[in-house]
Amino acid sequence: MIVFLALLSAFVYGAGVVLQQRAALEAPPEEAARPRLLLRLVRRPLWLLGLSADVVGFGLQAAALHRGSLVVVQPLITTSLVFALVLTSVWTHEPISRRQWTAVGMVLLGLAVFLIVAAPNEESSAVAGMRDWILTTTTITAAAGVALAAGLRAVGSARAAFFAVAAGIADAFMAVMAKTFSGSFDDGLAATFRSWTPYALVAAGLIAMLLISTAYQAGHPTVSLPIITVTDPLVASLIGISLFGDELLLDGVRGPLVLLALAAIGTGLLMLSRDSRLANEVVGTRQTVPEGT
To answer: Is the pLDDT of residue 177 over 50?
Structure first.
């Protein structure tokens, strides 16, 4: 059930990516990383539809994370890019190329090998001490802040890349908050809303939404989408291992096989990211942001 919920969440997220990408590209570049970017986008029906897909996807993701470990759920969320490819192909009535199918196959095969060989614990609980929470939050905030600052000084594809790194980190931390929030329901509804978890989740969600919209608005979806897709599960899995004690089996021959699986996933995503047709399908015929903004 955990795997099914994670894959269903990825499908819905993929639909949201397609919708929001089309809407965000029309925003002026000077609104990057500023709250008024969201104020502009909330007036666009297409973006709101994409946001609705994100809400549903998040609900499914939170349900998967209620008992599921971050090292299982978040890597499966990477298939959202695959679903985005399929959905845009259906939307534009254009077939998926052989190169794209090869990339999709590498991503899916890599995920399958990773889950089988590394045998990550499927279930985990969001239990950690306050000192560990403070250290994790400080580290994540610093890393995202450095990437955001670099993006504000960069231009062109580098700008999109730095923003995407910050967005991926923020999205990963939101997944961590979602797991913590969903786990707090075990103590009862009243106790949940007396704790810090729902308010931290809202704050993390708003920041992630702003950074993701900023990454999309910077253009270059062939850069931003794969980086967000890879950064999110990588950071979330590292947090799961260090904060919640999630485990992977890497002894003996398992270690090299896991590295090969991760390389296959990364290569597949890179092939998708370099496919200009995928970018055109995601962006559609909408106005693009000029190079160098």
So the answer is: yes
